[in-house]
Amino acid sequence: MKTKSLWLFLCVFVCALFIPFQQTQAATDGYLQKVKDQGTLVVGTSADYPPYEFTVKQNGETKYVGLDMEIAQKFADNLGVKLVVKNMNFDSLLVALETHKVDMVISGMNPTPERQQSVDFSKVYYSGDQYMLINKKDLARFKTIKSFKNKTIGAQTGSLQYTLVKQQMKNNEIKGLAKLNDLVIALQSGKVNAVAMEEPTARAFAENNSGLVAINPKFKVDAGQTGAAIAFPKGATSLVNAANKTITQIKQQNLINKKYIPQAGKYMAGNTKSNSILNYWTYFAKGIEYTLIITVVSVFFGFALGVLFALMRLSRNKLFHWLAVAYIEFVRGTPLMVQVMFVYFGIGAVIQSLPALVAGIIAVSLNSTAYVAEVIRSGIESIPAGQTEAARSLGMSQKLTYRYVIIPQALKNIWPALGNEFITLIKESSIVSIIGVTDLIYQMQLVQSATYKGVVPIFIAMVIYFVMTFSLSKVLGYFEGRMKHA
């Protein structure tokens, strides 16, 4: 008996020591203190999901509003810090969280078991049913999941709705896109027969578009999958606990139903009244500005590095030649989108202060380098070997030969191809919108979200891109003509 009592005493003693240690460890994980020290709470969201999060125009500036933004602001106020919102694609949010680009994610996100393996979640702050958005003309045809048999269903990639459609509508084709606005456009144009989304969001789109209607198809949803919660990095217990205190406060005061949802409704109603595209010309102007900044800087560094790698590939030094070949082939063999995400989320995980704009410029510049290097190499190799031999026989060094004989002639030969690369760069720079760079495509998506119009902003963006590329082609053509007469 004494032995058993001794063992019981030891177990209780160890537990008594271990539990406070666990609590202290959780309280001092550093995440909460880091937010307070930096004075900002950086929040990741996908602002195309009314009434959870969407955009409005106030005094010519973009403002992120909605239920989730009100909760995020309340949380930031309770911590005594400034709220900073980063808008990006929904399926990039958890990557941004895991690479510490944001402190938390609030975007109508469901705390599914799969997500809980990678990140920690707060308590559920709001629950809504899973609905379908359909064209009003199809209301008599579609009532339940079974009535959609052999139809095409749209859902946001990475969302609970995408999983539900995949699991419970196996006789259907599923079309996944990153932006709900694009899915609604697909619905209106007949590319999909319905779009799965949460009830508040479906009702929001239906109320602001007379041709759409929201229905409840009766998805079967597990209790652990429903509801929206805030996502935090794995192990950020101090932030989770602080967020839970804010959520408890919000629920006790019933702020969601009394204040946040009605406020979101007012913003949406205001958007509907003033959703003329002309009211958003400043968005497109800002998009043009950032697109040109990315293009100009990327052209400069892409050309400079392209010359370097072209000379390295032509070098007799085997190491330089091998490095140039390896770099050029690797870059040309991988998509630009993947490169942009790697620079921002991969390298950015090491250099956490790396801004999205800088990451975008670096990725686009490095991508352009590979193509420019090949264009320049082909131009240099097109010059007859006799030109080099003649220059060297006159006593010119290899450096002077390249500078005054080879490069000028090669540049004249490759100018059309080089110009085409620069024009392509304007269009390809649009890919940086996936990491939240406010280029033309990013601004176009904001206008879509704010006006509930899908096709018109796309058409305007197309015209703007055409004007920019056509203008550049004329400038390049002018210099090409000057070279021919030189």
Count up the helices.
18
Order of helices and strands: HHEEEHEHEHEEEHEHEHEEHHHHHHHHHH
Nearest-integer average pLDDT: 87
What's the arrangement of strands in the largest beta sheet? 9-8-10-7-11
Task: Indicate the proportion of strand residues.
Answer: 5-15%
Number of domains: 3
CATH level 1 class label of the largest domain: Mainly Alpha
Radius of gyration: 28 Å
Fraction of residues in H or I helices: 55-70%
The residue ranges in which pLDDT falls below 50 over 5 or more consecutive positions are 1-27
Name of the CATH architecture of the largest domain: Orthogonal Bundle
CATH superfamily of the largest domain: MetI-like
Shape: elongated
**Secondary structure category:** alpha/beta
Distance between the termini: 106 Å
User: How many beta-strand elements?
Assistant: 12
CATH topology of the largest domain: MetI-like fold
The profile of the biggest β sheet is:
5 strands, mixed
Question: Would you give an account of this structure?
Answer:
60% of the residues lie in helices and 11% in strands. It is α/β, with parallel strands linked by helices and 486 residues long. It folds into 3 domains: 32-126 and 228-274, Periplasmic binding protein-like II (D-Maltodextrin-Binding Protein, domain 2, 3-Layer(aba) Sandwich), CATH 3.40.190; 130-215, Periplasmic binding protein-like II (D-Maltodextrin-Binding Protein, domain 2); 278-484, MetI-like (MetI-like fold). The chain has a 5-stranded mixed sheet with strand order 9-8-10-7-11, with helices on both faces. The protein has a 3-stranded parallel sheet with strand order 4-1-5. β8, α6 (160-168) and β9 (173-177) form a beta-alpha-beta unit.
